[in-house]
Automatic annotation (TrEMBL):
InterPro entries: HTH_MarR-typ, MarR/SlyA-like, WH-like_DNA-bd_sf, WH_DNA-bd_sf. SMART domains: HTH_MARR (SM00347). This is Transcriptional regulator, MarR family. Residues 1-137 form the HTH marR-type domain. SUPFAM superfamilies: Winged helix' DNA-binding domain. GO terms for molecular function: DNA-binding transcription factor activity. GO terms for biological process: response to stress.
Length: 146
């Protein structure tokens, strides 16, 4: 089992280092993933994110999230909103401009990714994703039970 554990650690390290495409000067990698989380929540009808919920989900400190929110708000890609029912809680919402910038980079990255994935058999990709998500689900189940 130890060999598998080492192999998974090395795979994660190597996969994380991959630069599948170049980010533009417009948006950093962390901003891209940060906005993506909020956009997916908005598109699925989930409640808007707060700084605290984003910090918990991403395992990043609220202070670091606050700095990113400040930068994204200054760029006009994110806005802080509150509900009439609870004005004390500030939620985060991606603006139309933020969605446009994010979508352009997402489309570019999808094109690069498709080129790389075209060389791999579909059944191998399905296995990779199935096993990868089994692992992720298992880790998340263990986190909840702690």
């Amino acid at each position: 089992m130890r060999d598998y554990v080492d192999a998974v650690f090395h795979f994660k390290r190597d996969f994380t280092k991959l630069q599948l495409f170049e980010f533009s000067d417009v948006m950093t990698r962390s901003e891209f993933f940060f906005l993506g989380d909020i956009i997916r929540a908005q598109q699925t009808g989930q409640d808007l994110y707060t700084i605290g919920s984003l910090a918990e989900k991403s395992n990043i400190s609220p202070a670091a999230i606050s700095r990113t929110v400040k930068h994204l708000t200054q760029k006009g890609w994110l806005q802080r909103v509150s509900k009439d029912s609870d004005r004390r809680t500030v939620y985060l919402k991606v603006t139309d401009q933020g969605l446009k910038e994010w979508t352009q980079i997402k489309d570019k990255s999808a094109a690069y990714m498709a080129d790389y994935l075209a060389e791999i058999k579909p059944e191998d990709l399905e296995t990779f994703l199935r096993v990868g998500y089994q692992f992720i689900d298992r880790v998340n189940q263990n986190k909840k039970s702690l």
